[in-house]
Each structure stands twice: as C-alpha cells, then as structure tokens.
Amino acid sequence: MKRVAIIGSTGQLGTDLVAVMAQAGDYEVLKLSHREIECTDPVSVERALKALGPDIVVDCAAFVRVDEAEDRAEQALRVNGLGALNVARVCAEIEALCVYISTDYVFDGGKNAPYIESDAPRPINIYGVSKLAGEYFVQQACPHWLVLRMASLFGKAGSSGKGGNFVETILAKAKASEPLRLVDDIRMSPTYTQDAARALERLLREGSLGLFHLVNAGNCTWYEFASKALELAGMGNRIEPISSADYLMRARRPKNSSLESTKLKASLKECLRPWEKALESYLVEKRHLSSSG
Questions:
Q1: Of 19, 135, 241, 285, which is most buried, counting CB atoms within 10 Å of its CB?
Q2: How many Cβ atoms from other residues are within 10 Å of residue 235's Cβ?
Q3: Active site residues per annotation
Q4: How far are the Cα atoms of 37, 50, 123, 176, 200 from residue 46, in angstroms, in the given order?
Q5: Which residues contact 152 (CB under 8 A, 6 or more apart)?
Q6: Which domains does the chain have, with CATH numbers?
Q7: Which residues lie below 8 Å from residue 178, measured CB to CB, with a gap of 6+?
Q8: What are the tens digits of pLDDT across the range 69-100?
C-alpha cells in the first residue's frame, strides 16, 4: 500500500483528492494542512515529510490570488516557487514521487487554439511566473516528478484562498437578483476538482511521470460558463457580456488559456469528460440540481 501525503488537504482540490484516494483503497492517505506544514519553511517541510515517510507527495499548496500577486510578488514566488522547491528537495532525499499542481496561466494567451504540453510557456502575470518557477524547481530538484497543469477549478470545498469558487459566486448573485456582468472574450478550461482528482489517482496508479495538462474537455468564456450554470440550475437571470477591457483587473489575463490533455489521452486512453457534464455533476453534488436533472 502506497503512502500518499497531500499538502493542502483541506483545499478545493485537496479535499476531493483525499476522498478519491481513500475510496480507491490502495493508499494510506496522509493529510497535511497549513497547520502541519509550512511549505515556505525548509525545516517545517523536512520535519513533516520525513516523519511521515510517504512514497508520494502531492503539493496542492499555492498562493492563488492572481491580482494580489501583482503587489505581493515576493510572497507569491515564496509560496509557489520556493515552497515547491522545498518540497521537491525533501522528496528527492526520501525517494518519493513529487507531484506539483500548476496552472494554465503559464501561457500568454496568444495561441488561437488550446495549449498542449509541448507549447512553450510565457506567463504574463506574477502568478503565472511563480507557478512556472515551481514547475522548473520541481523538475530540477527531484528525479521523480509529475507536474499537472489545471485551470479554473470548481469543487465542493471551494477555494480557501479565494473565498469559494466562481460557480457559487454566480449562483449567489443570481439568487440575490444582483446584476451579472461577465467577460466574454477570455477563453479557459473549467475543471471539476472531483474529475481532476480521479484522473490524478489513475496517473499515480499507472506510474506516470512528466508534464500533463489535466482539465475537463472543451473550453468557454467566463460568460458562457456562468450562462450554462444558470441554465442548468433553472435560473433565468440575464447576464450582460462585457469585454475584458471594461473589467478592471490588477493582473493581465491570457486571452486564451484553454488547455488540451494530449498526453493524458495517450496515458489513460481517455480524457476528462466535457466541462458541461462536469458542471452538471457539480450542481447535483452541491444540491443546486436534482440527480434526475
């Protein structure tokens, strides 16, 4: 039985990963929240991981506030970059597989098609830079590594760093009859954390190594994503599509950061289901929608 340490076990992805790994039955799941490990402190990382002796370490810890990262670049780099390095170095010492969760924001958005794993990264905001630094540190410091780029996550636990997730925010505003204005010129790949967690477990089971894009199939704009959520939830609120130029954001966003999982399909013989189906399952899970639709 493999011992798997999950750093950030109470976060949006970590919560589903803990549940999926426990359900699989082939792993001893070792949960590490921020109370048990501070990734920016090498001593804390060494003490926590060496005490547990895991075979696999999944690093879900991250500074995820994209706009705030522009003004707190040092902190973003310390968590997403140097924190990843601290974890990777200890993984190398104890001969554990190091799994690092990265982002679609390592790309500049200039491509007119979804990005694949072989496309050259070129981040245009501090958050993307910090996550790319983490990717490089993990690859440099640990001989056995798995880097998984995910995007626009939504899951039952919500993001502690962002105070929830996009779907819940939209539904709450719709229920309160607040005006809804969403950007319709930025494309991305929504990803259900339960699907991502299941795919991650399968990659571990297969002994996969290297860089993978791990997102639900297809892509959309934030306006299209919100519109689908309201449609599925049976809410008729009107959403006003707007240009990103009319929406004040501290950090630049890639115009197209959608991802395609070419390597995932080759490794697992299938990709994650379309984001629309994943969104429907999420709404059922959160009881915004009955299982009968």
A1: 135
A2: 13
A3: 127
A4: 9, 6, 30, 47, 24
A5: 104, 166, 188, 189, 190, 191, 225
A6: 2-160+191-218+260-273 (3.40.50.720)
A7: none
A8: 999 999 999 999 999 999 999 999 999 999 99
